[in-house]
Specification:
- The protein has 99 residues and is an alpha/beta fold.
- Helices cover 49% and strands 16% of the residues.
- It has helices at 16-30, 48-54, 64-70, 78-97; strands spanning 2-5, 12-13, 36-39, 45-46, 71-74.
- The chain has a 3-stranded parallel β-sheet. A two-stranded parallel sheet has the order 2-4.
- It is globular.
């Protein structure tokens, strides 16, 4: 398993711009052969915008079931978990509405 340590990015993950940069780093790992541990230990805040741009937009590349098989989340605090879940729900809804 490959570990991606979000703490190396920062304690406060808040902007779409940063989310896009991190997604570009994550994507090759997630598309590789090994499962990727998304470790949020030490991260205080994950905004809805960052979560959407970094994580939920991965749904443009692979279905949720495949993303779940290729990743696991660790060290996520309750607020971050909530914002990540909201971002995924909103993104899936938006994709369904587009056709």
């Amino acid at each position: 398993m490959i570990k991606f340590d979000f703490r190396n990015i920062g304690e406060y993950l808040g902007t779409r711009q940063l989310g896009e940069q991190v997604r570009e780093q994550l994507l090759p790992l997630i598309q590789g052969q090994e499962k990727v541990e998304l470790d949020f230990t030490g991260v205080e805040v994950v905004s809805n915008s960052f979560a959407d741009e970094c994580l939920a937009k991965l749904l443009f590349v692979m279905p949720l079931a495949e993303l779940k098989q290729r990743t696991t989340f660790t060290g996520v605090n309750d607020l971050a978990r909530k914002n990540i879940a909201i971002a995924f729900r909103r993104r899936m809804r938006a994709m369904e509405n587009q056709g």
